[in-house]
Amino acid sequence: MQRNKQDNETYSVTDLVGNPSFVRWVLQHDPTAATTWEPWIAAAPEHATMAETARQLLLQVRFTTHEPPTAAPTASYTRFTHTISQLQQEPVKRRHLYAVLTWRNAAIWAGLLACVGTAAWYTWQQKRTLAVTTTFGETRQVVLPDSSLVTLRANSRLTFRRSLNGQLREAWLHGEAYFRVNQDKKAAGFVVHTPDADVTVLGTAFDLKQRHHRTTVFLQSGKVRVDFHDPRQTSRILSPGDLMEYDAQDKQVSASRTDSSYSSWVQGKLTLVDAPLSEIIEILENNYGEKVVVNDEKIKQRKIEGIIYLESKADILFIISNVLDIEISRRNDTMYFSNRK
Q1: Where does the Protein FecR C-terminal domain lie (predicted)?
Q2: Which residue of 98, 108, 146, 295 is most buried, as measured by CB atoms within 10 A?
């Protein structure tokens, strides 16, 4: 009898124990496996010995079934669901934290932008607006934000503002000032407002005074237009050398001609040409805050000619007293002018 190839195979005990087909034949009595191993055992005595040894080893192995406690599956399921819920909540926390950080960052940036905006607006406002006041006896030169030069006489107040688009430049004057307006081709105009009239600058240099319901404009160069708040008054356009005076109480407008000596106060002096004492008294009251009482009205008609420097009020009074032969005395806050005895 000729052996087949399977029957001639050589197996060790270890090979048999690890062979699935041999294990099924031993432990499960698998008939298919039996057709393999029974002929192999019968083919040689050493096969039988080897197979018996391997079978005994397999039969000695005891498999223990481990069943979990009853509460174990429930605990495991609880841990599982808790883990799942944690995994589901974690993105929500990240989103919440992200949202908080986003809002916090947005608030910080908004605050920074607000601070920067406020600083820029304040700086811009500083460049756009200006307010200047002079006291009695004080004269100040002011450079406006548009580079225009203003000489503000004593006891005066000037406010300047440029429009948001920079086109219109406006000033409000109480008192007296000499304007040398910078020609800004990008700006539409320069207007000076007084309580009784508006002066629109079409040129460069002019003298504007508004005191006691009287508005006086002297144009040194260029051109200006005067618009009165009283609708019954017709606007006036002044040429260089024109001197216009408007009395808002009497509703009277007068015009005359003069020269640049009218504005000599800008250089700190008065150039007087046949000027009556009443004119100097007005200067003392308006620019030095003096209260003057004249005992004889005729004294006011006395005239003086020449140059008086404005640096010292005492010098002015000395010249008046000696040139016009007037006795000047003071009681409390009032100065009295009278004929010299």
Answers
A1: 270-336
A2: 146
Q: Cα 243 from chain centroid?
A: 44
Alpha carbon dihedral 43, 44, 46, 49, in 10-degree steps, equals 50
Going residue by residue through the chain, which has 341 residues, state the pLDDT in tens, using 9 for 90 and above.
444 556 677 888 888 888 888 888 888 888 888 888 888 888 888 888 888 888 887 777 554 444 556 666 677 667 757 765 665 555 555 555 566 667 777 777 777 777 676 666 656 555 668 899 999 989 999 998 888 899 999 999 999 988 777 678 899 999 999 999 888 777 668 899 999 999 988 767 899 999 989 999 999 998 899 999 999 999 999 999 999 999 999 999 999 999 888 888 888 888 888 888 888 888 888 888 889 999 888 888 888 888 888 878 888 888 888 888 888 989 988 999 988 77
Torsion of CA 145, 146, 147, 152, to 10 degrees: -70
CA-to-CA distance for 75 and 72, rounded, in angstroms?
5
DSSP letter assigned to residue 290: -
One-letter amino acid for residue 166 of the chain: G
Give helix 277-288 / helix 313-323 axis angle, nearest 10°: 160
232: CB partners within 8 A, 6+ apart = 251
